[in-house]
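ARCHIVE CARD
Drawer: 12
Card no.: 0347
Subject: one protein chain, sequence and derived structure
Cross-reference: see card 0346
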Amino acid sequence: MLLSAQNNKLKVTKEMEDLLAKSNIPGIGVAMVSVDSILYKQGFGFANLTLKQPYTSNTIQNIGSTSKTVIGVALMKLVDSGKIQLDDAINNYLPFKVSNPYFPEELITIRHLATHTSGIKDRVTTYDLKSYYIDWDWQKTPINTKGLPLDKKVYLKKVAKNQKQSLANYLKSVLKKEGKLYSKKNFYNNKPGTIYEYSNIGAALAAYIIEIVTKISYADFTIQEIFSPLKMEATGWFYKDVEMNRFSKRYLGKNATPVPFYELITYPDGGLKSSLTDMALYLQEMMRGYMGTGSLLSKASYKELFKNQLNTTITGKRSGIFWDIFGLEGEGEIGHTGVDPGIQTFMYFKPTTQIGKLLFINTEHYREQSIHIWEEFIEKEQLFYTSSKN
């Protein structure tokens, strides 16, 4: 059995090396886990093309919207402690009123935020161009846009003008009627709870409610209650919180232009920085939770976290509490993806095989190549599923 498992690992390593060599992607990390074992974990290519620094399983990068799954876990921590209920109106907690101007009498609930049915809209002018900023403490040189398409050049130029501000101030600006960025167009003309429309701002608002309830920053709460118990020592929300000598360069475009050191004002929706090794620990705990043996949440809260919350006939979507659900309940993949300037991530587990998979990529370009590598990697699940059961 040990020889077979080793041969499987060698086979996967060779195939991943071949796939990366045929692509234009600088570096990747992949992992497969069971609830109690790391079945496979390996980095390929480069974290830094100039220095020829290898991409390893301990390389750190931001993981994009896969970060949102942490909001779900944090919310359920508060449910466990009796501090919130998912069907509470968000205005029970917020210091400023938020309502959909098309349906002003309809309450928006925490569950609506957690299932992307709140009706809060991400607009280019209020989210894409306003929620990112350059961290000039780390970006020591002028931003390089050489070789980038015009839309990327314009985007980086606009983001470079943004100033760091608190999550609270940004949300107030966008969602409060008197806010500088407020508009009826910041909402969909749909009754809350009826239509699935993905909302980064809605996710950030859920994290802000966590801050209000806990009276500490969302960053501190998640470190104390989630990352530290799981021994995720390479994980943090800001550059100052992680080992930057392990941080991957992130690349844009065909010329692999390095991405500047950006941050998100709405950092809970996509700003987490972590390694493949740490996220494997996180995914293992989520799988244990699904199976009823997790340590972070009660059995009831884990069940709620991964339960489909939506009327699929109406919405055409399945969603847990900030977790994507595919296929029939108990059979399809559960997890999340992330895409941000210079990165892509995939994180899913399959209940029927009890195997979890991770893929980190340090470019957002070559999306088709990235998906191909992911699809090829997850096909290897059967190798590890068989060996883990022997």
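Annotation on reverse: The chain has a mean pLDDT of 95. The chain has 13 helices and 13 strands.
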